[in-house]
Amino acid sequence: MQKLLNIWLRGLSFLISGVAFFLTLWIIVPAPTFALLPLGVGAPEISPWLMVANAIAALLSLRCIHKSWLFRLVLVGSLFSLVISTLPLSQFAVANQRAAMSMETALGKEYLSVSRLTALLRLQIAMAKASKNSFVAVDEVSVPEPSMRSKPFVLADAFRGIPEQPVRTTAGIQFAAPDGVPLTLTVYHPPPKGKYPTIVVIYGGAWQHGSPNDDAPFSRYMAARGYTVVAIDYRHAPQYHFPAQLEDVKTALTYIQQHAADLEVDLDRVALMGRSAGAHLAMLAAYQASTIPIRAVVSYYGPVDLTKGYYDLPIPDPINSRAVLKAFLGGTPEEFPARYRQASPYSYVRQNLPPSLLVYGGRDHLVQAKFGRSLYDLLQITDNRAVWIEIPWAEHAFDKVFNGVSNQLALYYTERFLAWALR
What we know:
Blueprint: H1 2-25, H2 37-45, H3 47-63, H4 69-85, H5 87-107, H6 111-131, H7 155-160, E1 168-176, E2 183-189, E3 196-202, H8 216-223, E4 228-232, H9 244-258, H10 260-263, E5 265-275, H11 277-286, E6 294-300, H12 306-311, H13 321-329, H14 337-342, E7 356-361, H15 369-381, E8 386-391, H16 405-421
Parallel strand pairs: 3-4, 3-5, 5-6, 6-7, 7-8
Antiparallel strand pairs: 1-2, 2-4
Helix pairs in contact: 1-3, 1-4, 3-4, 5-16, 6-16, 9-11
């Protein structure tokens, strides 16, 4: 029996060590192909899990080290992996400090108290509506703490997930059908009916795929905190070239304006948010005239200068950036220079734009962080409010792991930025 147990422990040691070592490597090794990109995206985000797995592998191999030289190699590999798996958390404090400083610089030292009071008022209104009581003055002693995240990173949430709260969801609301293509909205509401500050969310997917039901965990999370979240659709490339996608976003905003009461939208407090291609469209819409006054825009790793993006490629380039841009714009910058400029948010920067929150991964191999940084610098030069958050260890689409290390940091500041902007 003891012999069987020893054999089982050795096999378990090899298995855990091998799997953990393979996954951990993707924290530092960029994905060379699109098929491997999920590993590059996910490994840094599950690094707390990998730390535990590598520690267990090291302990098991240490127990068996006297059996064979092979276990000495396993131990060395496990210890190496353990060190690598600590990299995201070891960089977290500095990244958080820089994010906090950028928020304070752009929004003022009072932004924290403004955000807290906004969340407090919103919570109290929701409580009053739910209980059908009249609204009373804010009393910070008697009213519970706002439901914004208390810390930029909660280790328990990395393992158990970020807790969800009930919200109302309505999917499949058609707002247009250009060229016979049905375009729909998915709307997320807080539990009590009312009129709420609103986040219009635009999904990513290289302008070629996706749906308004993408990124539902974020939409549900924000709805539970007192926002109406409207996730919108648009036509896809390569069948439809730009500016069809931007036209669809503008059509959706017009629909939201015309149906604000039914959608429970406060038209005086609307922000746009997008990820990747959706962030690109959100910035274009926010930086141009709109049927709805846009109070703020949030860009998660959005392209900003498409001409530079075509020539200055990441290494490696797992998505084939040039092919994506040609599919979206119908050709190269040499063929359509004006269209590339027209499709670049960088081209529309001027004074008096809505405040911008720009969140990028430092290891992004689809949309390089330096392009987002150039937009941030230009927004500052033109006296616009802008917040820059760069997450050094994060790859593109890091927030797909909703409870991951990167998204916890991004979510902490995103909800405070939106609470400040939509107060």
